[in-house]
Records
---
Amino acid sequence: MILIFAVILTIGVLAFTLLVRAKDLPEPEPVSPVQHLDERKARIYENLRDLQFEYRVGKLSDEDYQRTKQDLQRELAATLAEIDAIVGKTPKTATAAASSPSQAASKAEASFVCPNCNARFERPLKFCGECGKPLQEGNQ
Amino acid sequence: MRRLKSRLLLAALLAATLAPGSTPLQNPEVRRIGKKLGCQCGCQSSLTECNMLQCHFADPARAELLRMVDSGQSEAGILKAFVDRYGKAILREPPTEGFFLIGWVMPFVATAAGAVFLWWFVRRKLRPEAAAAPAAELSSEAYARYRDRIEKDLAKLD
Amino acid sequence: MENLGALAVLLAFCLSIYAVLSSAVGALKKKPFLILSAERAVYSIWILLTLASGLLVYSLLTGDMRLAYVAGRTNHAMPTIYKFTAWWGGQEGSLLFWSWILSSYSAVVTWTNRRKFRQMMPWVIVVLMSTQCFFLILNAFVESPFQVLAVGKGIIAAEDGRGLSPLLQYWAMAIHPPMLYLGYVGFVVPFAFAMSSLITRQPGDAWIHTTRRWTIVTWLFQSCGIILGAGWAYAVLGWGGYWGWDPVENASLLPWITATAFLHSVMMQEKKGMMKVWNMALISATFLLCIFGTFLTRSGIVSSVHAFGVSAIGKYFVAFIAIGLGASVYLILSRLDYLKSEARLESVVSRESSFLFNNLILLASCFAVLWGTLFPVITEAIMGEKVSVGAPFFNRVNIPIGLFLLFLTGVGPLIAWRRSSLESLKRAFLWPSVAAVLLVAVLIVAGIRHFYALMSFGLCLFVAATIVSEFLKGSLAIAARNNMNLVRAMVELTHRNTRRYGGYIVHMGIVLMFVGFTGAAFNKDDTVEVGTGETFRLGKYEMKVREIQDGDTPNYMWQRAVVDISKGGEQIGTLRPERRIYKASQEPNSIVGIRRRLNEDLYLNFASMSQSSSDKAIIQAFVFPLVSWIWIGFGVLFAGSIICLIPPKVRLQYARTEVVGVVQKHAKVEK
């Protein structure tokens, strides 16, 4: 009895572990090429918000506030510039980027754009990671 | 009858296992000095605080300690007598002499070393080139371009 | 039955090796099939270990005395709950418990991240499963819980077991080990993420974001474990101490200290992208100290009441710790370029440097504790002479360090990030300092001369004042701007930045605990021999022994003194300190009587019967001022940690939207 159970257990576990079918493979969530820069940007915004609040509460002197704010803004601008360099658009032509994909594609290699929401991805996807609408094949 | 028998048995057992050993602790001086001596039964606590029943170490040691206190020996004399008999391990702190001083000094030496390192580290980090700061690379013209956007975002904050 | 359990452990061991290999190969050769198969192996291991643990628990509950573990840890008369907790009451079972928790954590991590971090996850699995593999070696080959009692070739069953150690038959002890293990084991996960982000050179701090909550929860488990242990020592060991600086207690404290340092210094990385190497080092140190703590407890290298006794598993632990240390040091050193700091310090007077200071002091106390714990081993190796390092040493070294930390707890949060001018510092610190100085003056007038106690009370008030002023200033600003009343504004304030204000509440809990610790400076005690009807005094209390009872239960026999307490001629209660003898193990245990009040606890221990006259009892009486504040402070700390875990109200979504163009999408939707 124990023996049968042991055999079943062993086979069951090994089968579960070893038999991996193609359709079991998970579809990975899309990763933005600038994710780490986004994180940095979020961080700086958060710092700025904090700074504003602490200033309002009265924890900071005017001079501290101005200098720190200046620093943070410079860092933020630098981060934004870096993001734009990767994504391939400048702030002035933010809306134009979608209409001139060739320019964007030349700067950011292999970027795939969702026709619905203009989100960009670094590899072709079946569905847009942002809005969830299907991405038609060949649409780049 | 049966109940009585079991009670008698219980009393006998309790008397045996709950044997004395705490009696000398009634003397406050024994309690005080006992706190400086470690019980060697493996309990890691002091002679005063060892709570094992019939502790093979604490019970006789406490009786001895009481005898010494009663005979009027000084605290230093008592501690020395215990060290002579059981070795330095009986004291609950390492002695402040020779090699054992390292035991006392080391935490503070390490803290001081850490503080020196920290001082060096802060000095180094205060230098402008300490970071691969992307902010420095940005020209003022480029900065101005982003500035509007930032100001707009900041207004939305809070 | 036991064969099935042993088979499950053995299969789990094989699968853990398979998981490590297939995950690593899958990651290197980019084979998603292998990676998925490794993930499946993680789930399988969890199933197998759950089965093995289930079988062990079943044997414990049904009292299958053929098993050595069952016979050694339980007896038939034991309450069912303690039969269950015997799972972690002994060496073999608790190692299996360790393994099981680790496998559960691994399964949870693998499942929740099954679509995320496709680059990092295989390596996370490698680290987790290597650790798992190590513990499964112990479970399968060194300390198997499924060994049967055998004479010659026949299996025998013991008549009845020896029972769980009486000291462990107490409610706090039933949940203390699981809490501590949940904490110990939990740090494997942040460590695994840290190492895999190093291996794959992930840009950004993804490992910190993903494991942030995890670290807080694990830290909280550890804190719970430590404080339950303290509560247990206070109520069970009979001498009224909650912390004896025992090696095993120290072992649980060490990773807690480095974890606390990590929780602080990680903020520097999150806020400014600094201290990346340091955070890696801290998380590795925490993980290794967790393993080291397990090693200290299990190997019998230092003697302790809590230790599981001498055993041969020490060398396995040494090997594992050496490999872990070598691997993490190598990974950090080989990727220093990737760990380069993104920012610099702007000023010496800044939050950043206060965090650096806090880390220095935390590590100093960690080192002092570690040093003290190992010093006897060192002297014995070098001098050939044993010395003890007991509570007096640790108190002497750690009290100044602790007070300094308390001071930093007050100072740190008031200094702004990047820079703080003297003017703003003055504004922030004036009133708290005045309050602290006033309190100290009042206490001196009231007759308190104990230096550390004065310092501690002063600092406690200082820190409490800074925290309260932080809350008040913040909520006043919100109240004025949004037209709210103060209480709602305070909730709003906390909700906006749960981590910061939750953290302040945790600090408040620490302050209250320090108040409790300081009470120890004013302890009073006495040991008296009293017969029925006799009275004795301690402090304000007058105690009269009404009677001495005895009795019998299937599990133990007991003897109890009924003591009436009165204060100023008025009876205020009755305490019943008790001694027990557990029948199975023939071990005694004391159940102390405690009258807990906010100002002080009255604590009676029935030490023994008298030597001279058989109807007299020896009773130890203690007065412990302020001890209750330790437990209250812990409650506050717990609440604060939970608040830290609540997601903040303000979500910083805008940062992401801009880049991937969701702004336009939202604009469309709004139209």
---
Amino acid sequence: MGFKEALANGEFVVTAEVGPPKGTDISEMVHHVKMLKDKVHALNVTDNQSAVMRVSTIAVTKVLLDLGVEPIFQMTCRDRNRLGLQSDLLGAAIFGVKNVLALTGDHTLLGDHKDAKPVFDLESVQLLQVINRLNEGFDMAGNELKGKTDFFAGAIVTPEANPLEPQFAKFEKKVEAGAKFFQTQAVYDLKKFHTFIERAGKYNVPILAGILLLKSAGMAKYLNKFVAGISVPDELIQELADAEKPLEKGIEIAGRQIRELRQVCAGVHVMAIGTEDKVPDILAAAGL
Amino acid sequence: MKDKVSNIKPPCIVACPVHADIQTYVGYIGQGRFKEALDVIREGCTLPGSLGRICNHPCESECRRNKVDEAVSIRSIKRFAADVCMGLPHPDPIPKIKGKKVAIIGGGPSGLTAAYDLAKDGFDVTIIEKNDACGGAIYTGVPKYRLPKDIVAWDVEAIASLGVEIKTNTEVGKNISFNDIVKDYDAVLIAIGLSISRGLPIPGADAEGVLLALPFLKMVNFDESAKAAKRVIVIGGGNVAIDVARSARRIGAEDVKMFCLESDEEMPASPWEIEEAKEEGVQMFPSWGPKEITVKDGKVVGMVFKRCLSVFENGMFNPKFDECELTEVETDNVIFSIGQGADVSGFVNTELSVDERGRIAFNPSTMQTNMKGVFACGEVVTGPGAAVAAMKSGHRAATAIARFLETGKAAALHLSEPTAIGQVPDSVVDIITKLPRTPVEMANPVERATNFGEVEFGFDQKTAMFEARRCMSCGAGARIIEEKCAACLTCVRVCPYGAPYVREARVANFALENCQACGICAAECPALAIDIKLNIDTGIAVRASRSLDEPFITAFTCQYSVPEVLNPDTVKTAPLAGVNQVAMLCNNRIDTLHILAAFEAGADGVLVAACPDEKCRHNKGVDWPKIRVDRAKDMLNGIGLGADRLEFAKVAKGSAPGLASAINTFKDKIKELGPSPASKQLTPSK
Amino acid sequence: MIVAEPKSLDEIKAMTEGFDRILMVGCGTCTTVSLTGGEREVNLMATALRLARKVEGRDIEIGEQTILRQCDFEYIDELKDVDSYQAAVSFACGAGIQGLARKFVGKPVLPGVNTQFIGFNEEYGYFTEQCKACGDCILHLTGGICPVARCAKGLLNGPCGGTNNGKCEISKDKDCAWVLIYNQLERLGNLEQFKKIIAPKDFAKAGNIRSMDLRKAGD
């Protein structure tokens, strides 16, 4: 069953992600995709993630489709203007891509081509509107398309952003702009997350909570210090610090959190940058 | 440059009757430029040795430092300038290029001052003095414990050395006739002062033992055997009365009592004089008026006083007494010190008019008497006052005479009077470093009351320089060059004292009250639109015939970074040979432009001395120069000279030795680096 | 005002290589106020360049003149002895440099500064960009705080996910414009405005060879 249908049916949906490699050798990536193939509903394909140049998303989504995996096409506004964005969306649609995650994208200054000219002709909210317009059969300029798209558009939200209010207001705008599902930044403080879910509930849009494997107490502290919108509670850091094998403890924590999240949200999105091989363990720990 | 505020001066200068350029000479002392200081002093105060001791220094009362902590000890600084230069040769004679002769009758402060000005102007000046030496009241009247006679003589010699002829022991009406003088000279100035003491026509005033102040003081000054009786009463409350009382103590009087009409607060004598007299055992009895002198066998035995209720009515002298409240005091001597009159006996049977008070009649606007070409100045026309006030009158007379001799007629003088800068605002007071006034050392009161040794000791070099550095250089700071100002507000933002403001005028203005002359703004202004009025010495020497073997160092320092022991004739201070020291107004004025200019002038190395003295009145003598040095270092790297050739030296407190050793170390470093590649002799490109 | 930063001496050395008589021209308006193109800076650069050439073993002549503005011909015409120089270095913004170049026909006009932005003078020596000259002002929609100039991505509909404790993802020293905007709209009681989706910007208003003609069409 497809991603969209699973959400519609109220299944607890699991997504993970795959990062296109830097270079033309995709063997490792293919290995990971095969490993996850039957364990998730869909795989996100990131778009020059963290503003680091990699294989194009559209090419990798094609690889996934060929392997029989449903991709979620991540599209950022950093590297293309409105012409590029629209034409790539049309291209993806031809390949059979259904799911698009509309993102603004990290700034070029955070990546490996800091001297690049960042585009940001559009941004996430506007991109969502554009996708809906393409679904209606028109481009941004109002020209009619010969053959329209049928995208299932989603967006992201950071439930633990500080301050939360402007972020939440933007969440509302994304819903208004046509976001049909949300994937979130990694959540650790489930109390805070519950509050967010309660507020977001009235919009009746499925939310997939972000899960990021904690490999050690040090990593947790690093996330707290340097990554926007992530706050790992002190108890979790202590639990990791006390553990003899922190990685296994991390997997245990992730599994535990997924079980708890099952009660409150539509699914989880497991981010596994560099630890793709642990995703099955996490899902096992969660009883999925 | 437009200078809207040219006639606004520091209050010290405004308060000084002769408007001596106090700020400049105090500044010179602070920099160790003693001879230059003395030259500046003389332009206003023509008797620096004497006035450095006895001036009533209205400048200090008005000093803006009073609001911050205490006034700068200006008089003592002046005294130091004179004392330290006493071994130096006097000024050279001035050529008498004007070809006109001026006779000055009376060589007191006003006559000497006029003589100084006229001689400097190239007139042929002769002073006709009835005593055996010039000085007038400060020679015959002021006691030696306040002003030694050799100091007066030194001051007079300096004026004589300009080419002024002095005829002593020459009294008009006795040794020379006034009419002859008028005939022989192109102009005559009468400056005879007030040389007669007044007494009171009360019963017993003609008894033996009743004396008058001036003859008494003259006796004390010139008769070494003079003795006073055991008990002395001095009548009067002015400075002369104090001189009399204190002198009486010194010639044997054990019991000296001063009686005056005025109340404690009204006594006209300077407060410090009253204090010093009290310390020496003089007893004060204010608010008593003389009623009669008790006489026995023709001699004074006592005196009766009546209570004085008030002295003035509507500002006029009109004493009121309580005739019922009397007191009788036993005494051996009564000395009247209640005022002086003019001795105009030399002018009887001449055309010269005398007014109803017995003084020379004159027109204060032209300084001329009723006789054409005959002028008058000093106390004989102004009445009694301070020596420095007499000097002012002398300056005016000299100006009047010079104009008369140039134009043939006496014209009204319109000498513009400066106005004073206002008080330091409270907000600025708070951030100025507090530096208490250096006390002047005094001889022990018990000991000093027994002899005529000087009561007050002058500053030594170190204290004089320190005290001079307390001067806030009022009003000597920033001036805007309006046509360049871009109204960018940089000065407003960098000034620690809130001096600059940009109002409707759309150009920067500076509140003189706030400006502390630190120079930060001038070194930051992007349009070079700020001038500092008191630029000490921004001259950057050009390496001309210097050998290339020895490093040529330019050292930028605060104007006060000077060795502590100097020769009085030091003109330019350099802590080390071979170093071109550029003394800046303040380290805050040191500019990146100055540094590069020094290299362009051929320096092999440039040293910027951070403010060595934590007693600097500016608290930020380190931060700003550091920023500018850093910028210059960056540029030197780009230039190819390398940042190594520029040093920012934080010199420890104690200035001179620290600075010298910093420069020496730096010199060695530069020697290793070799001559600056930019100082090589170059052939111009085609 | 237009803010410019000084070019490095190395750069100025390289571009003036081969010239012995150079005119350095300061601009008395924007770049003076931004502390990088006034009489002081011209004097400093001229001295530095002369020294640098001396170190290389040659003497060059540099004229220093500062005029009120370099974006007006009338002021440029005030420059003296222009013909005696081989090249000019302008310390004005890009507009001034080009203005000078139009008068210096046949001679190179070189930039002495890097024009940075339209900025605000926050305090002594510290300037911040406030305006991108986008040609389509939306400050009335954003609480008087410009997201085009002050959001690193120029977003129009709220903060990105990189906002962190009110700071921008590109630097902890820079405020997140959208947090500022949110707070200001809240103060103004106008959060409804925040919720309205702002359409993609019309970059046609910013991206062309722009000119503005206020003259009346007169046939």
